[in-house]
Amino acid sequence: MKLILLSGGSGKRLWPLSNDARSKQFLKVLENDKGEMVSMVQRVWGQLQSAGLSESAYVATGRTQVEMLQAQLGAEVPLIIEPERRDTFPAIALAATYLYSMESARLNEIITILPVDPFVEDRFFYAVKELETVLETSGADLGLIGVRPTYPSTKYGYIVPLSDEPSTLYQRVSHFKEKPTEYQAEELIRQHALWNCGVFAFKLDYMIDLLVEKGLPIQYEALRKQYGQLPKISFDYEVVEKAEHVVVVPYEGDWKDLGTWNTLTEEMGKTIIGNGVICGESKNTHLINELDIPVAVLGLSNVVVAASPDGILVTDKSVSPKVKDWIPFQQTPMYEEKHWGWSRVLDCQRYEDGHGVLTKRIGLAAGKNLAYLMHTNREEVWTVVKGEGEFVMNGNYMRVKPGNVLHIPVKSMHGLKALTDLECIVVQTGAWAAEDEVVEIYSGWDDVMRHCLKM
Amino acid sequence: MKLILLSGGSGKRLWPLSNDARSKQFLKVLENDKGEMVSMVQRVWGQLQSAGLSESAYVATGRTQVEMLQAQLGAEVPLIIEPERRDTFPAIALAATYLYSMESARLNEIITILPVDPFVEDRFFYAVKELETVLETSGADLGLIGVRPTYPSTKYGYIVPLSDEPSTLYQRVSHFKEKPTEYQAEELIRQHALWNCGVFAFKLDYMIDLLVEKGLPIQYEALRKQYGQLPKISFDYEVVEKAEHVVVVPYEGDWKDLGTWNTLTEEMGKTIIGNGVICGESKNTHLINELDIPVAVLGLSNVVVAASPDGILVTDKSVSPKVKDWIPFQQTPMYEEKHWGWSRVLDCQRYEDGHGVLTKRIGLAAGKNLAYLMHTNREEVWTVVKGEGEFVMNGNYMRVKPGNVLHIPVKSMHGLKALTDLECIVVQTGAWAAEDEVVEIYSGWDDVMRHCLKM
Q1: Which of A127, A230, B233, B255 is least crowded, fewest Cβ atoms below 10 Å from its Cβ?
Q2: What b/e string do you get for B429-454 counting C-beta neighbours within 10 Å, with b at 16 or more?
Q3: Complex ipTM, two decimals?
């Protein structure tokens, strides 16, 4: 079995902690067995490792999440990168062609699609494993996992089984019902319907045949090229609801969508993450503070306070699902994790004459390097404040340490490698970001060194 | 009549907007007639100007508030600077000797002491003016202003009049009662007692005689020198309660102590100051945001959210008077107004090896200059990002503009004058602040220019 984890979403409902570079699945708000704070994607990856499934897992994602996934799961995590975000059908189709043409997967290999951030118990992954046997023995086209409903939710999709024998290992699916009324939901539960949790298993040839049938390429590179023309449609609508022979494996256990502040804080390991206090009569109140400055919450119950370099949210928990609708702020992410470390915007000014100043603190992990590149319309001043490294500008090599000031004029090629953990204060001045172009020359440090020798 | 405004207080109850460099009286949260945001001290100074009293007013304050007072009231505001903070008796004694020996005030001059931040109506200052006539005609030692109570408060001090004829211009004082019980307060109100609002008027010789009697110097410089030995005691206890002949002028009108978030926000001109939104069912909720990042408050009523570079407060209004007790944070002020402009800390890091990095953005107003000085243990990198100016380092003069990078090694003398409004990003590195010493060489720019010519 090969697993494809779909990592999408911009996570505006968890503003200000989530942003375009850091979707909700990357927020480190859960506590693992060792008392460390981990993100949802790290929790799921750990569960896959425990279940012996991580070795055969890939993450399908967009370009904006690559740095974050590598930072959180390790640089070796196998990624299938969508050229742009379209929806789950194109994403799954691309992943299938990748396995078929790039990884030479067998046509009868079972492919299982999983969301990257279900909050579930470990035994959920035993159900995932069972999908293999179930697909083989049932001869079904598609295998799903259904969660036993705990209340007549009107927010989820329901999988309605054909028989009403809830005790078998799997059941044949009759049909689906999206977001029913509460009355309908009660009736569905009586029919032993299950919540659809977004897991799909199929044999590779099922998907490949489907692509052929639709006149789409089955080679990865070819499909990638015309990815922008694929319809923006979900796998549920395009495939699952049209499939003839679908089975479902029931899972009985916790299954939660931690996509809003009220559901997320229920699973938080602590009431306070970061620098701050909650005082006075405060019940069921949570504080997540990623800023350096302290936060004090006094005499408030059922409240979430979340502070990040992007902004500050203070909300009653009951209305927190509406955050997405109410937040009018559109902005560049202020904190980003990178494959080489992290970058944090300290200050951002735009002056009347149109020029701008961006002040950042960046941290490079020992052994990592920034790409060798140049800015067409910005100059930079870097002050090394911690650690040691190698700096190259226009082919000239120098060792750097705290106190060194690196003045990088417009259109100068430059790169930096950290020998030990290294930090710089970076002041960028010149044209505002939109008018600046970054030209990358080399990404690997070996190439930069060779370039120096040639100069 | 000469007026002395006492400007004290650290204003911890209005954390995080108030700090040691910016007491509550300096917060610009009130709206004036022209729709501009002004501070309490600016409001009072404007009222003094309208009443024709500002010309004879002095502000008695500590060294830490000098820059702020000059920034808000103008560089010409006459200041009497206490060598250290002690309490109101030493402060008033020092001010009296200043008027006596430095300003050659007449011995029969009426001196009126006022708090710097009463929130009152304009006619309050007519009562202040009347104190002159009242002291002359009554022959009393001390004249006070008493506010007609609006409810039996247990927080204030009461002035109990001798007679029960509330209609006269002034009344002789029988005695005082500090913080009575509610039952006592009701009884006091029946006796036409008034709230003491901290205004004291006396003839200069009354205070001078008192100093002589106590064996204290009556010359300003002499008293200043032994200021540290004066008792930390209030003027109320040391003088008012022992005085034999005291009169009170009643004032009928609004009189408020805007010293806590719930009282302050009642008088705020707007519900939102700064970048942010209040959405959903939110009644009587106020947001004051001094940060660049946005704040969203959703579905919360009777709440104050205050964000500044020092920290973030989220509090139910009813418990906001307790802010002072609950805030455990001790920190260096992150934003300071200076006589030359302002300074804002962007980032502050202390590394394991004991060295530190402080990143600031500073703004100099056109025509102003930083003192010419050197740091014994810190080096600095300044990147000019806005405006034009003159920079001098070790006697060398240069004109600077955006893009210039000024690298200032340890022990280098340096100064900067703004020709137009000027901004710099400053990165200070080296020993942590406590181990660094700043040696000021010249404060005036003329001296710096002469020094350049000599080099």
Answers
A1: B233
A2: bbbeeeebeeeeebeebeebeebbee
A3: 0.72
